[in-house]
Amino acid sequence: LKEGQTPRQRRSGKMADMLEEYTDEFNELTDAVHKRCARIPDLSGDSKNKEVAKSEKELQDASELVEQMEMEVINLPSSARSAAKAKISESKKSLADLTKKLRRSTIALSNSQAARDDLFDLTDGDDARDALLSNTERLDRTSRRLDDGHRSALEAVEIGAGALDELGRQRETIERSRGRLRGIDSDLSTSQKLLRSIYNRAIRNRVMTGLITLFLIVVIIIIAVLTVEK
């Protein structure tokens, strides 16, 4: 930890480092999918299915990394949050484009006759394309609904984080007020001790004055009696 930094600054630094790690992992996954998209059209059968499955898994992992980045960016200071959100938006766009590229690569024709056979053995040409487009549109609508739900959840988390920050500031204010009250209480205790000491001294002085006055009265009476007897 760097000396002179507040806990919030150290926490923000850790969040920035984590975002960098997530970004590096995201780039590695998307680069791997790009390379597979170039190979998939020339494959067929199990080899093609395995490459497609691997690519879909890597796209899923990349999507989860983007979600993690969106969660972490909330804890960044406002000065760094805008730039981080812009990078996340670029990552989401890149992920969406790569998903479309994988779909095109999956159904693309290659120079291999076996690959063309795999495509058209599924069903007749026009029906296959219509069904594929219908399924793609359905998946896109579902994906948009999921994105909307995820965006709403992130907004709720951001609002909650703001509320927690406000509560933290209020707690600090209360702690400072409590410290001042403890100081005032200590001053009051000292003042009470001083007043008690002054009061006790005044009582002692009053008793001494009374005793001296009584002694003088007795002396005067004795002198008067002796004078009368003479």
Please estimate the helix content. Answer: over 70%
Shape: rod-shaped
- Radius of gyration of CA atoms, rounded to a whole number: 42 Å
Poorly predicted regions are 111-116
What class do helices, strands and sheet pairing give?
mainly alpha
Feature tags:
5 helices, mainly alpha, single chain, 90% helix, 230 residues, rod-shaped
In short, what is this structure?
The chain is mostly helical and 230 residues long.
What order do the helices and strands come in, and which of them pair?
Blueprint: H1 7-39, H2 45-73, H3 78-107, H4 113-121, H5 125-229
What can you see in these coordinates?
It is a single chain. The protein has 5 helices and no strands. With 230 residues, it is mainly α. The model is unreliable at 111-116 (pLDDT under 50).
